[in-house]
């Protein structure tokens, strides 16, 4: 270090190495310094107001902040606000039956809007987002119902679930008999085949082949099929398959599986009521 | 020229030159204190300035029981006298914007920056602000002196009153702006009761501060450095545009009037180099340098130069509205032969026709039909096919109306879900889900066009109809 500063007037610190390598003293701009200190102060203020610091080692939790703010509180406040808006409708709905709700245009609209999420969470996986059905799962938008399409039966179906049964006829009928029955069904006239009566189909599907809502047996005359063909299967093949292997017949490992789970324990009565209205409003309700 | 006349002229010229030293071109480092001399163009500028009174007074016009012109943003309705425009009609706004953009272009091509010089809020407000300044602080020389004077009671008094008046105008500007968007009567009530909403308060504060700063302090600097239009308009001026121009053929070589020299023996041009054109320029430019970005073409220098020319006994019009072509002796192409003007005019006419068509065909009700996408169609147990639609009824009237929905286009169509008339709320869209059924045999295959029709009758019994085409879908045959 030189005793005398050989570079006066350039704001250096007097630290000079190798003749001309020197340290300058240029402070950062004022605004920068102010911003730095303001940020530091803000961190402290923030730490006082909001939860921020972990608790000391060995103990659980964190500092709560003087305002007691938490994300969960904010969320709960938001939910409470929404609930308050809904309360007006919900209290009305609570005392009404699903059928009564359907009679009120405004409440129906509210129910449809608010049940959309319920349907998405609980029903759409099988029945499709718009109730259009899926491979192996019933369509909800048409007016062909296995167990009846009144608002009450829809509500019962959701609450208690459904499990249809049809015996596998593969060992009972000869292949040509299966062919004949299947063809009659495709034509929409099952009773035109004498086998329909002789083999006891009428026991469940009725004399006219239109099914019985009490049993959940399918209407065989309307060209709407509970089981739609898979892959390159034709509708005729699909009908034959159902006749041969039945539905939910434990003796046949290839049987059609068709189970609607019961939602009575999973969902509240109010939610089921809403869902019933929602499904009814798909357009098929009777 | 008599001796008396000669001495009068000399005295006038002396006075001019005594003052000339004060004036220099704007370099942005000091406030421009422009001189006011009066004249034809000055009067015209006051007239065009006063058009802005519409901005202040317009909101107090009434139409029936509401404000005549109200841009009601919270309710998404624009009221223009008898017409109510909803967001659905907003395509007209784009035509209106197109119209004004092209109007700006065509006016600029013909006569330069008429907008800047006579109508722009920046120059108009600045004009009014500096007028107040002159009334309170005196002529430019006095103002400059006052600016430099040490702070004293006199200075505080004058400046204080000036800034107060400026702030009041700025405040009123803010209020005027807001009252186009909220009901003016209600606004004053709310203001008196300290009951204004946050949006109104913030808007008012921004406009007050903006007006005060822009017209009081930034002034011509806004035209130089902030305003994009100034630059764009400069580009649209060409050699055929008639703009305030210094006739340099006549004026140069400029030279001061020499005492005793007769007009006949003069070797200099007509410009007496008195700097009066610079003195009166609100942006502080020298028009004698030719067209330049700082020139807002307010024509005040024409007034100033004409006065001087009269004093020194030379013909007026050394600075005048003239195109560069005609100044250079070229024949000015007539307006009709300039394709640019034709294109501009065609676009202007088109946009006007579009707006006129839009306003005249504003439907009172309008339906939109949205076909459900999933599923596209549903087979019914009776063999028919069902499609689901959401019908949206937009009611643009001022009253609720019961609307009947019907659908045609296919044999045996049945509509469900709209048996009773639907109450459509005014100013709103009322949606309704409807189902349409058709026998399978009447659909050829794929999709068939169908026509939805909404009919309603208002209180006075006038019928309103709106139709909308949609499709009915079925399985491929």
Spatial separation of the terminal alpha carbons of chain B: 106 Å
End-to-end distance of chain A: 101 Å
Largest sheet of chain A: 2 strands, antiparallel
- Mean pLDDT of chain B comes to 88
The strand order across the widest sheet of chain A is 1-2
Q: List SSEs of chain A in N-to-C order.
A: EEHHHHHHEHHHHEH
Biggest interface found: A-B, 16 and 14 residues
Number of domains of chain A: 3
For the record, the CATH architecture of the largest domain in chain A stands as: Orthogonal Bundle
- Helical residue percent band of chain B: 40-55%
Which segments of chain A are poorly predicted (pLDDT under 50) over 5 or more consecutive residues? Answer: none
Give the radius of gyration of chain B.
33 Å
Tell me, briefly, the overall form of chain B. elongated
Q: Give average pLDDT of chain A, whole number.
A: 91
Low-confidence stretches of chain B: none
| Largest pleated sheet of chain B | 5 strands, antiparallel
Indicate the overall shape of chain A. Answer: elongated
Number of helices of chain B: 17
The total count of strands of chain A amounts to: 4
Cα-atom Rg of chain A, whole angstroms? 37 Å
The CATH topology of the largest domain in chain A is Cytochrome Bc1 Complex, Chain D, domain 2
